Predict the 3D structure of the following.
Amino acid sequence: MHQIPLWCRNLLGAMGPKLRDSFLGEKRQQRPRLVALIHTSEKSRHVTSLLAEQLSFLGESVGLVSDHDATLATESARSASLMDASGRLLTAHQFRELVGSWAEVDRVFVDITFQTAESRIGDLMSACDAAYCFCTPSSIDSVADRIEMLVAKTPALQEKVSFVHILDRDQQVAPLSTEITE
């Protein structure tokens, strides 16, 4: 074996991952299927459409559930409004039933404003695999406080929630937010 180092390296390179998987188990990170995009400003609304279009381009089938008509106009495999016929937000049961019926969709984006979802934000985040809060500098403190209260009640939410700072044109770096660093 020492006489053929390239062959030995290739053999170990091919066997290494298989041995690791057999001893430690497969270590595949699962992609979130149901992703909440929570906006505190209209400035970030276009991100949902961009994400859906990019994932569709890459071959994923994408579903959109939104409280915003312009987002629902984005080309996707499925789309539905978060509002019922009377203009009220869908209940948690109705939401789960709707998304559960979309088995053929690889990923579902729930696009909603924080103001619309505030009363049921805990239910929404619990139903989703991941949640991204798009915050402006003026809204980050109030949103972080609300999310912190929800995490205190339901610690599992801490792993699901991420904050995205929306910077003004004159800002290059997001301000330090001590409320969300933990």
